[in-house]
Amino acid sequence: MADAAGRIATLAEEVLGTPLPIRVRAWDHSEAGPPGAPILIIRRRRALRRILWRPGELGLARAWVAGDLDVEGDLYDALDRLSGLLWERGPATAPRSRLRTGVQALRDPGLRTAAREMIALAGPGLPPPPPREEARTTLGSLHSLRRDRKAISHHYDVGNDFYELVLGPSMVYSCAYWDRADSTLEEAQRAKLDLVCRKLALEPGQRLLDVGCGWGSMVLHAAREYGVRAVGVTLSEEQAAYARKRIADAGLTDQVEIRVQDYREVPDGPYDAISSIGMAEHVGAVRYAEYTAILHGLLRPGGRLLNHQIARRPQPDEEAYHVDEFIDRYVFPDGELAPVGRTVAQLEEAGFEVRDVEAIREHYALTLRRWVANLERSWPQAVRLTSPGRARVWQLYMAASALSFERNRIGVNQVLAVRTPEGGASGLPLRARDWRG
User: Fold this and answer.
1) Which residues of 261-277 are buried (b: 16+ CB within 10 A; e: fewer)?
2) How far apart are CA 13 and CA 19, in angstroms?
3) Phi, psi for residue 157 in degrees, rounded to 5
4) Where is the Polyketide synthase-like methyltransferase domain (predicted)?
């Protein structure tokens, strides 16, 4: 099959109605496309079968995770070019798959001819099964306790050693806070943890609840630097075991407790302060009012909540929102993003007074690029610790997410809220961003 790359490029341009912005190299070593551009490598014909049987993001993701597709050159540049090729976004509208739209337009006789040739290039047979790293259909109703535990396990129980490679010594899996772009990742993560503690105005002897505590970094910092008594809850057994060891090694077992527990099962409020850092994305729209009400109930009057959460852009038809297929199947099953305005509204509906919203979108782009660099620097070890497919999931997810933050497709915000008493004394200072009253 001579010049497969040229044929693929021509057919893709016919279906999508636009020139390919990247170069293509096919399994027969042929190449086509703009010179000097990043190269999309189609290693096997079955990559085309995956895409033809599941047009759009999921087919491409399956081919990537399986190693049927690869990129030579700057991965960020390639993803940036492909995002413009595969997705269209008008003003204030949701993204629309150009690939799926192109396939749906095959009523046109010329496009049907192009599709038949693409099918011939792909070869006979059904599509290969999805890579084993893909999350299977989860049992139970959406965001039930059982289903949430399984979803969290899919993402977090992939090996603490793997996360050490990616996250670095801080073991903080959320957006860092950068004073300078050339700060180290560890400096920026420490700055983020300290920022949260200062916004919560933590003091010795107070009780802190950290919802979705990860590997224990927040509770460790708060106990060590601010003298609080802290409880961290997570649904991941591996995270909990790792956090407990860190706490024991730091000699803080009398101050910090780690529980494998859902936030809906915490029985021992009230707390003086609550932090929820990168956890609310797992809650889901159907449970968010319950989430805010439970946190409000677990906080003493006058206590503060710091909710650190990724946000998406609002859509004209919010009912049409759906999670990206790649993220849902390979990264965060059942995860959902909400516009920051909706998050603020639901906190207020639960009885909180929202006092500050700080947008730190650019900080997450810097964080993700550091995580990608950590992964790529230790690639052979990452593959040994998990699997080639799992490492490729993380590489694609983090690099694409960095671009999404940089291009303002998604954001991240710290929302400081207070359970203000009936008398109205919030306990905050008159001047904004001076967190201690």
Assistant:
1) bbbeebeebebbbbbbb
2) 5
3) -90, 55
4) 162-403
